[in-house]
Please model this.
Amino acid sequence: MSYPSRAADSQRAFRFLYESAYADLLKFVQRRTDPANAEDVVAETFLIVWRRFQEVPGNQDDARAWIFGIARNLLLNARRSEQRQQALGVRLAEASMESQSDSHADLVSSRVDLSRAWALLSEVHQETLGLSVFENLAAPQAALVVGISPVAFRLRLTRARRALRLLLEHSPRNAYATPTTTLSEKASTP
Model:
């Protein structure tokens, strides 16, 4: 009778998958929702993984991305049902403007600029950068999470990086750092 042995193997495989992905998945979810709800979302994610265990990809990285995709879909469903319009990106802490030294002032200023630029990015760009930078997923795995092809994800990542770079280059701090010439100055120059 091979059925009990298959069940034991499935339980062992699920336990290994759970133990290897739980901590990263919890961090992933905590960055995208209220930390008080994060463990519930992760628990529901693994319940779905258990129910659909035959669909888990064989490759460890692909399985991890598949699990992240399930969690992402749960978060999106929760957002739709609660009609929240909050971003899926990483919540950056607002930095205090009070500084004690020049190097600290530069760091604070950079964090404030990044926070402002991040808030101006679209949800798609935030999610794309978050998967690539904060979750450290390669394009094929991140594409699985989002449900698009790896080529489409790479294109989306390029556009998100460009958008963030443009926002950072045009931040108020950078606007004062580089000298600019006015139209009248350009017109009067031979």
